[in-house]
Amino acid sequence: MTLYQPFLDYATSYMRSRLDLGSYPIPEGFEYKSAITGKGKHQEEVVTTSHGFTAPKLRQIRAAHVQGGQSLQVLNFVIFPQLNYDLPFFGADLVTLPGGHLIALDMQPLFRDDPDYQAKYTTPILPIFQAYQPHLPWGGDFPEEARPFFSPAFLWTRPQETTVVETHVFAAFKDYLKAYLDFVEQAEPVTDAQSLAAIEQAQLRYLRYRAEKDPARGMFRRFYGEEWTEEYIHGFLFDLERKLAECSLS
Ligand code: DBV
């Protein structure tokens, strides 16, 4: 069993218990990808698997799971709501590298600086965030340009110990996911044209930033090559622009 498999298993069965889950198409060649890295006795197989779902109100629920031995484990898990809901994104970036663990967990806001939006989608999460702060302190160094995409309840931490990931991080992950599905349950469709346009712009802003700055790009290119990586990023991980283009063609 690898470090983040229990997170993925939990999320899948928990979502199944609360949502009417359908499957989200994964383009050919991306469901399972393997490569051998390193030389001699340092050789290691790196496997990336992809997982995708949809649900009412949620356009794409997707995970990328990278397993490359003890010192390379990644679970990147994001939920993209339908464009007629003002829901935040659920974003989890759980990363284990030779230097240690790097954990990002948040309900990423569409409108970071709008007080009504904060009151609706951040204030209810703050008690959960605060409960974990003593165990999961601020991780330091963080790209300034990424700040607009995170809420004040952003859990960003770099635990040294794997047991911290298995206990506190796992518990926080469960609490955030539960709170997110509570938001989903309560969400009402947005119908006025101006709000719909603002949501689409905010989703595109987020998506373009993530596709452009994907911190995994270097790693994926090394393992699987440039062509596979770019297609993976734009055709699966952050695919909204492609999907919008397909709609307007058909
Ligand atoms: N990050 C992704 C995807 C990944 C992934 C799709 C499938 O968005 C993995 C894989 N994240 C990943 C890896 C690293 C990070 C780091 C492999 C380590 C990169 C390295 O050190 O080589 C949050 N993830 C990070 C970092 C941040 C995040 C801030 C540190 C990067 C740095 O220091 O420059 N999650 C990440 C982020 C957003 C987000 C920037 C922006 C909206 O949601």
UniProtKB/TrEMBL annotation:
Annotated keywords: Oxidoreductase
Name of a matching Pfam family: Fe_bilin_red
GO terms (BP aspect): phytochromobilin biosynthetic process
Source taxon at top rank: Bacteria
Chemical reaction(s) catalysed: (3Z)-phycoerythrobilin + oxidized 2[4Fe-4S]-[ferredoxin] = 15,16-dihydrobiliverdin + reduced 2[4Fe-4S]-[ferredoxin] + 2 H(+)
InterPro entries cross-referenced by the UniProt entry: Ferredoxin-dep_bilin_Rdtase, Phycoerythrobilin_Fdx_Rdtase
Matches recorded under PANTHER family: PHYTOCHROMOBILIN:FERREDOXIN OXIDOREDUCTASE, CHLOROPLASTIC (PTHR34557)
HAMAP family hit by this protein: PebB
Protein family (similarity comment): Belongs to the HY2 family.
Protein task: Catalyzes the two-electron reduction of the C2 and C3(1) diene system of 15,16-dihydrobiliverdin.
Listed name of the protein: Phycoerythrobilin:ferredoxin oxidoreductase
Species name: Microseira wollei NIES-4236
